[in-house]
Design a protein that fits this description.
By secondary structure, the chain is mostly helical. The chain contains 9 helices and 2 strands. It starts with 14 loop residues before the first helix and ends in a 9-residue tail after the last strand.
């Protein structure tokens, strides 16, 4: 007998979206490289839906050298033009340049501390850096930004990051498990 799992309704019936919901969204991440990659990918969704980026995620990893910040920080106009012709990613010059700026800012942060300590220290969900667990009753109760995402956005911008507004930062916090917004009846909370 198979039982149907109850999921947050935002992931719909798309198997890729459901796998992301089931295995990644809201799962705590403390890995510097993944935190960096997710920040860049979340920024790419500005004005778009996350499923659009999710479907292109592997292409982004290929196009951006596995999100190796030291390589990305060296990208020049020739590389930007190459990326602008890559149909596997969103061909938006400012977003491509944002990933390059983010790599440089990330490397600067890494000179003094781990990126994990940096981002988790800003959002400070709890003193022990465990996630804030909300479990709203409905998706409509989930905010698009919070005081923590506003603080994260402000600090990231101050430190040179791009495409990191408060709404993107809140989506990032959800994606990296800083906050768990699975609805109360979701089997994956």
């Amino acid at each position: 007998m198979t039982t149907t799992k109850i999921r947050c309704n935002w992931c719909g019936q798309d198997s890729l979206y459901q796998a992301y919901h089931d295995n990644e969204w809201g799962v705590v991440c403390h890995d510097d490289e993944r935190l960096f990659a997710m920040l860049c990918l979340e920024g790419m969704q500005a004005g778009l839906s996350w499923i659009t980026i999710l479907k292109k995620r592997e292409n982004y990893y290929q196009a951006f050298d596995g999100f190796d910040a030291s390589k990305i920080a060296q990208y020049d106009d020739e590389k930007i033009n190459e990326l602008m012709s890559n149909a596997g990613i969103i061909r938006h010059r400012l977003k491509i340049k944002a990933i390059i700026a983010n790599a440089k800012a990330y490397l600067k942060i890494k000179e003094n501390q781990s990126f994990n300590d940096y981002v988790w220290g800003i959002v400070a969900c709890h003193q022990d850096r465990t996630p804030l667990i909300n479990h709203p009753k409905t998706a409509e109760e989930i905010p698009t930004k919070t005081a923590a995402s506003i603080a994260l956005s402000k600090q990231l911008k101050k430190d040179g990051f791009k495409f990191v507004g408060p709404t993107i930062c809140y989506a990032y916090m959800q994606a990296c498990g800083m906050v768990n917004d699975h609805v109360a009846d979701c089997d994956f909370k």
